[in-house]
Design a protein that fits this description.
This protein is an all-alpha fold. The protein is built from 14 helices and no strands. Helix 5 packs antiparallel against helix 9. The longest helix is centred in the N-terminal third of the chain and has 35 residues. The chain starts with a helix and ends in a 40-residue tail after the last helix.
């Protein structure tokens, strides 16, 4: 199947994903910023933001059952409608308990919608075009999420306009999928994974995935509050958040290619240490730092966002082909658990230490991750470079995305403890 035909067959899915990420990507930023403006304590902000990732973890099994029961299109429409309604419901009352419940619901809907789109994209992908479509999907996720940060700048004297706009985007995300002419694929049975087996195969990969989840969950959940407490207005907050996300996209390819050529753990160690250094740098930057704040923020994003795909690539170095999908499910679950814990923990350091507490926390996690890698390097010898799998930048969406992974076509590597 030619690439042009494959792209046409997934174009509606990519458009729906872009609209979903624009609306959903802005929601956490808007909520954290507005809770800060309402003088809610940082720990309340962290707890509310953690509930989204708890929804991601809990919603995986529910989404699988819903899709199997009613099909991809009906499930996507139902989940998108609930997500749109929950987003709009935030506008009626600034209450941490209500917003926490709504964030849980939004997270459960989001992971189900990702499962729908990604299984559909996988069905429309051929071996010859899998890599290009995978890359295009990943770019769509990051860029749309980065653009969505600027919705916080929408003039909104009533307090409803920005929620209404995000709800509209989420509702529009349903349309391209609902009217597509292509038949929905059959849902593949969910492959069970075992955390203990994943730990036996690659404790390094599992730990890095968890640590990355803690760092990025803390950033997404508390980053807007950090900007606000640092004196940034809504426009500069959007620029800062967008710079971090776009930086996370730009550095993945060069860092990943480097990890294909040398001991991958050395690259992971460098990235973790660099993330800690960037965090220390951000702690010392003031609100009037201007371009410096954006550049260091982009550096932080470029390094920290790379940790998860590095963890996946390192784990794949030691996994049999038939174990790739269940093991990837374990990695993304480890990431989700870390992301659920990150905002709540980071908010406490902000509560006691001010705005800089966010990056003090993230820097500590990155430093601890680097220490763990050093310890593991003393226990396990490096894998020969020729036996390493290829690095691939993977979005942190759902387990289904790994069924599109081009490495499935030629993966190698023994199952090893």
């Amino acid at each position: 199947m030619p690439l042009s035909h494959s792209l046409r067959s997934v174009s509606s899915l990519l458009l729906g994903t872009a609209l979903l990420m624009m609306g959903g990507g802005a929601l956490s930023t808007v909520l954290a910023f507005r809770m800060g403006a309402a003088e809610q304590p940082p720990w309340a902000v962290g707890m509310v933001m953690s509930m989204y990732y708890a929804g991601i973890v809990l919603g995986t099994g529910y989404g699988q059952k819903l899709i199997a029961g009613v099909g991809h299109i009906r499930a996507f429409v139902a989940l998108g409608s609930m997500m749109s309604a929950a987003t709009l419901a935030h506008a009626f009352l600034v209450d941490p308990w209500l917003w926490g419940a709504l964030r849980l619901l939004v997270g459960m809907c989001a992971v189900g919608m990702f499962m729908c789109t990604e299984s559909w994209v996988n069905e429309r992908s051929q071996n010859s075009t899998r890599g290009q479509i995978f890359a295009l999907y990943q770019v769509t996720v990051y860029l749309a999420q980065g653009v969505g940060q600027f919705l916080i700048n929408v003039p909104d004297e009533s307090g409803f306009a920005v929620y209404l706009l995000m709800s509209i985007l989420m509702s529009l995300a349903i349309v391209p999928v609902a009217v597509t002419k292509f038949q929905a694929p059959p849902l593949r049975p969910q492959v069970r994974f075992q955390f203990l087996k994943l730990w036996e195969i690659s404790p390094t990969g599992m730990t890095i995935a968890f640590g990355c989840g803690v760092i990025l969950g803390a950033f997404y959940g508390v980053g807007p509050l950090f900007a606000q407490l640092s004196g940034l207005d809504a426009e500069r907050t959007a620029r800062f958040m967008g710079a971090v996300i776009v930086g996370g996209l730009l550095l993945q390819w060069p860092v990943g290619k480097l990890s294909d050529r040398i001991d991958r753990r050395k690259v992971i160690l460098f990235v973790a240490a660099g993330t800690a250094a960037a965090c220390a740098w951000l702690m010392g930057l003031a609100a009037n730092s201007g371009a410096a704040l954006l550049l260091v923020g982009a550096l932080f994003g470029g390094l920290s966002f790379t940790l998860y795909p590095l963890a996946v690539a390192y784990t794949f170095d030691y996994v049999r082909l038939e174990d790739l999908v269940p093991m990837s499910g374990g990695l993304i679950m480890a990431y989700g658990l870390g992301a659920a814990a990150g905002p709540a923990a980071a908010s406490l350091t902000v509560f006691f230490g001010g705005a800089g507490g966010l990056f003090a926390f993230c820097g500590f996690i990155a430093f601890a991750t680097a220490g763990f890698v050093i310890w593991r390097m003393t226990i396990r010898d490096a894998l020969p470079i020729d036996d390493q799998s290829d690095f691939l930048a993977v979005p942190r969406t759902s387990q289904v995305i790994y069924e599109i992974d081009p490495r499935l076509d030629g993966a190698q590597g023994p199952l090893s403890g």
